[in-house]
Batch of 3 targets.
Target 1
Amino acid sequence: VAGTGNFLVSIRWDDYDITDDCRWTGDIVLKDTAILTMGKTITLAQNRTVAQTTRDAETGLFAGRTRWTCEAGSYLRQENVSTIRLTEGSSLVFESGSRFVQAFDASMEVGAGCTLRFVDDADVMLRGILEVDSGGVCYMTDTIGMGATARIIVRPGGKLVVDGGMLTSVDSGGMWQGVEVWGHRNRHQTAADQGTLELRNGAVIENALCGVRTGRGSDSLHTTGGIVTAENSTFRNCAKAVEFLPYTDTIANGLIASNHGGFTNCTFTVDDNNLFAAGNASFTAHATLCQVKGVEFLGCTFLNLTSSPLYRGRAIYAQEAGFTVDEYCDYQQLPPAQPGVCGCPPEYSDSCLFEGFATAIDAGTAGTPFAVTVNRARFANNSTSVRINANNFATVTECDFDLTDCEPFGRLACGLNLDNCTGYKVEGNAFYRDSYPNPVFCTDNHTGVQVTASGSAANSIYRNGFTNLTKGIAVSGSNGGLQIGCNGFTNNSYDIHIPAGASVAMSQGTLSAGADNVFEQTRVSSIYNASGQKLIYRYSAGNGHAPYSPYNVMPDA
């Protein structure tokens, strides 16, 4: 009261609004309701007032770190354009049974040394921006609802961990923006210099326009390099699940290190429960890679279960990029090495699976390529399983290509398409249909391997199996160095098909070592050669090595 030295304090029990910018310190507990009104900011900071009798071991002050706990039954709401800022090592925890709602255009910032944690059974809805700055960490262990405008940004040096949690859309018919993992394009790929995202223990990213992007959406070329790792996690019904933007890490002697990003035992899937039409989006690919090296996909499953042909898309789409698709081996469970046993036994390994795509793996190169490796993967119900263009370091080995189903893709299917490639290794694969259809409905062109213009360099297609196909191996263009040897062909219309204008090495096999393919139950011709030059085919007599009804071929047993 004026002139008396007394103060008059009014207390309202139901006044939950925070209408001024605030700096909060100490041990804060929310038990009821707090509403941060439009345009206002709460800053959590270090308490520098004496609050304990001894210096804190962590802060060195007479006060500990600031900690804000939202307990069960509490409700915290951010209105539009409001900000919650964690600074100076503070933390914010939403406990089980608490509720948090972030309005459109609101933001939460996790600063250096700070921690934001959403625990199991917290009711969380984000519609603005969650930003994890350098040195900050955010943990999510349960379902987080994401509005149509919601976006998570992990800045260089920041870290987001989704441990068994789910990030999914909440607005009716809307897809959310996704997670951006920023970096420094010209620095090494370390946790200090790049943002980090870890997905593990059943984590799910669902219904995002782009689930994860390694760079800033509006300025991606200067902010790439983010580290993305996922294990036992799922990407479901995202228009694009993962996007790796251009980044190379040049180390000693000009060598380029492999990207630290990788996926182990993850599932990438789209189905008819997607929100693409409502979100004005379309499925493009589960994973796109541009100018990166060495991203790994180990034991992953890629599925397209949609019924619409509009959403066939790709599983992996790579441009000027190198990557590895391989089995996952559980080394912790492996028994001691046994004589004569090579590789990972099937009971301890999980192969990658690709099913339902227009082109499952599509890798294209215009400049100097990085290596593309596809090993021990399974393909089913794809129009084209693997297409590799202009890559000189492609390896496709011990894969299973099931070309049985031709619907809904029409009457064309191809296992492996090598276009303008050389230096490739194609070995130990199986290309097949379950049976040769009768009546003949989808036999116009089911091809195991299509090779186009591989040039005069020595290349080989070796020790593969081709069964019940229209064409086992088909070539086009100049392939003057291509040797086709020790493959098994069973019940195909054409085992090796060389049309007019195409070529392979004119002498298949040598005097000391025959080509020695095995031809069984060939329907039309084992070797059809319309190139205009007579082909010399050397083989070991007997044992099914002789070609059946060869055309323009001089067999030389």
Note: The chain has a mean pLDDT of 91.
Target 2
Amino acid sequence: MCSGVASVRRARSFGSRMPTPSRLTIVCVLALVVGLQSVRVPAAETTAPTLPELRTLGELQARLYTHVGQPRFAPALWGVKVVSLASGRVWFEHDARRLLSPASNTKLYTGALALDVLGGDHVIRTPVLATVRPDAAGTVAGDVIVWGRGDPGWKSRGSDRDFWSAFAPVVEAIERAGVKRITGDLVADATWFQSLPNGAGWTADDLNDYYGAEVSAISLEQNYAGLRVTPASAAGQPCLVEWLQPHTGLTVENRVVTGAADAARRITPVRVTGETTVYLSGGLPAGGKPEVVDVTVPRPAAWYAAGLKAALARKGIAVEGLPRAVRWPEAPVARPGLAVLGEAVSAPMRDLVHGFMKPSQNLETDLIFGHVAELSRNDATPAGRTTEELGVAELRAFLQREKLPVDEVKFEEGSGLSRNNLTTANATVALLVAMARHRAAADFERSLPVAGVDGSLRTRMKGTPAEGNVRAKTGTLRYANSLAGYVTTAGGERLAFCVMLNRNSGQPPGRNVREEVDDVAVWLAAFAGRID
């Protein structure tokens, strides 16, 4: 009992702006501690523990203090802040200026940057060029070049369209130019981005997974392909392997063996960075269903060029030369002054932000970050300044314009996969407050996942007052979990909040780390008590 009182006193010091809990509140808190300790949520359960109704803001604050102050979080780091959008009043804060890893909460900053600098109507225009103009017969007696600008929309994944639809914007531009035959090469020029293909601060093991796919000014299918693995008819035989997308340039060394009917399902793909062989090991049970594994594709612009040549052939446009690609620091092939055949136009920026924010898609975020960055490059840009460095500079300028705490945002890249990205709950809430009054407020909020409904929150907080209410960006890395966005309380108060939990290495039975941050959002959504 005494330790519970001590934890409340310690927690009180973390938020100097918070009202001092009354003696009655402390008694309530102690009861809540007992309730929290007795709760065991089943592993599949996503709802918050059922606790007594909160009648005042002081009781809500006490519950939050108790939650973050539990002894099991002693090795962990919390950063929490909650602000009323109507009054600007700080409802709660705990170590809100502690620099922590935001993980994919970084995407909030990239989305806000793109909507602020470019606006929701902005489209990405990819030039389609030729070294000579087509003649009267529609022959280009030279090369055709696609000059990439980071359009993330060249994909069929996640839709009911086929693989070839990803090439439609460029194929249609070439068709409109009257081209029937290309005697030279088909070149995918991805040199517009002047950074390494792997983001700063990424780890080596990220590069073998879809979420660590290479960043390229010309991308295809989010720069990873699917391998369908099907068990053979009898145990002991090798499984069958086939690509779901062609022209990857990858080969497969298949070591996956069909096991007995009750054998475990396990497939491990490994592609060594810089190499093109995929080593596939493991096994599937005889009579079992096929399984699809994802494999990142190196030099995705080369994959795009090979696929585009095949897509043009399907339309009767012959390319007699080779499909090839260049990327920084290789010399560009595209240049001003070449013949313009046309351009491929992306979806509006509001849709592109929606497209990466809802599912928390890393590559597409970094493509937009890079696009904003390169639009800022000019004759005065210092030589050697990378795309990522320009993007970080543009983000810093945006934060300064909005009078946000720029020194509390220390990023290397735009998606949040970097382990070196750091920010504070205070800075993230300040961003959310600024975007709530921004001209792009509706587009920004629409891009956020909705609890229990869609995106990376579709399975979370179901059956709670947060479902269909909380709009927030998730963030997950090893030892880093974040949730930040907007919620309307049961009392009708609209709040901006950020919850960051780092270095939490263990959970009680039946609990997962996501529930620790989700519970805060649920309690905010459920609160209908008095404010004063």
Note: Residues 219 and 234 are 39 Å apart (CA to CA).
Target 3
Amino acid sequence: MSMGTGYRTAPALSTTEPALDPRTAPGRRAADAGAPALGRFCPGAVAPRTGEDALRAALTDLARPFCVVRTPDGPAVGVGGTLHVGDGAPSDALDALAIAPPCRPEHLGDAGFRADHGLRYAYVAGAMANGIGSEEIVVAMARAGMLGSFGAAGLAPARVEAALDRLATELGDAPYACNLIHSPNEPALEAAVAELYVRRGVRTVEASAYLDLTLPLVRYRLAGIRRDAEGRVETPHRVIGKVSRVEVAARFLAPAPAALVDELVRRGDLTREQAELARHVPVAQDLTAEADSGGHTDNRPLVTLLPTLLALRDRAAAEHGYDRPLRVGAAGGIATPDAAAAAFAMGAAYVLTGSVNQACVESGSSDAVRAMLAEAEQADVVMAPAADMFEMGVKVQVLKRGTMFAMRAQKLFELYRTRESLEALTADERAQLERTLFRTDLESVWRDTCAYFAERDPRQIEKAKADPRHRMALVFRWYLGQSSRWANAGDAARRLDYQVWCGPAMGAFNEWTRGSFLARPEARRVANVARNLLAGAAVRTRAAALAAQGVHVPAAAAAWRPRTDAELAEVLR
């Protein structure tokens, strides 16, 4: 087996380099123990090299395999030679103790996911609401061979359509996704956005925050369902479901509920023949296991959530007999090469990032927020009431450091829980709200709220007129909704009220980038961050392969420090 055919030459290492320390040398422990060799290695033009630098260089040469071999000077890295397995090796060949196969970033994850979505890399920049997952992020991801999802949640349909116009102009047929968020308090908005996606031919949506399947989501998924020339069921629209609960995941991996399909037939959105085809496809072929993330989250650990959903995937595939494989990706905490490598090692078909993209210059947030995120540590996050599901008590994970939003939002929820109306507030409570949170009188807030919903969903106003408690909820939601917009706009007067969706991944990213060029907010670009995470994950994957063969890999040799685009080009060429 040639170790060099078809691969570029590895950089030469200094001949004066000292031998590896016996306590940390790759393969030394196996060699000292008399471990059996997996084969015999004949060096090529480059002699085997000892030293940590030699191992680091070999691990980073992602497209080229190498061996750890036994030499008179101790274990060494052999590149560019020939590995003989079995008989026939020359008598002077060296014992091969382990082999590190090639692993390029485009090898990571599920090949079917990459092919189906037209991607080079199994990497998704997830949707962040209110346009934080911006057109700029989507375009940058598409041009880098990855999938970006536009953050349509919280935006009016006209704003979403403007984004679709821009993406069509800049990307043409290049792949991208758009968010469709569960909106139990604004079902008309969810339906309007889903209908917009059908009308505009959006091929992929990232469905998030769903507690149950809805008619608009199923309408999008099944629109245009048909059989292809080979008789297989074909769906023009793909759904990537993002979930953290097993019961919700099971609904996404099953065919659409019969009651919803029948309603679509009744409305004329599906034919009877299409309804029959719907029984043969899942609502989502791709499912993202959303662990401890920013925004809507159940704070699940990825190491327990992902294996659970992978097992569910296998049960669903067996139960329903689909002719295409189901896939599960990983999100939440993906902010370092180690985290990405771990997710892929556990079987993730792809990884999805969020918090780290908000910290990049292309996000729809502000420079002020990016500076705050650059200082965040892992414990600087907290759960706070969600604007879109306020009455239900649903919470989102937000940045705690530098803002009082979480505390103030919780105060509003406690008042909503214990008071029946705005009129039931005490004089002190009302004065405090008007002075510190709203900075205006509640009547003015109500007028602004009416103007907002008159355009967005007039039924909310009618309901509030009949239900004083719902009127109170809408007024309180005004603060929660504005707090995100103040953050995105960088409103300095409202800095203490910024709502910044953020998970502990942000702190891990900052720790990894500390002392590098990526420590500076203005240097963070989504494609560069993604390529660094994937390249580093590939290095860690190769190091893990050596460790699985009994080779000790010094931590420094497998560490990946952020590289500029020019430096990455040398590694990824």
Note: Residues 468-489 form the longest helix (22 residues).
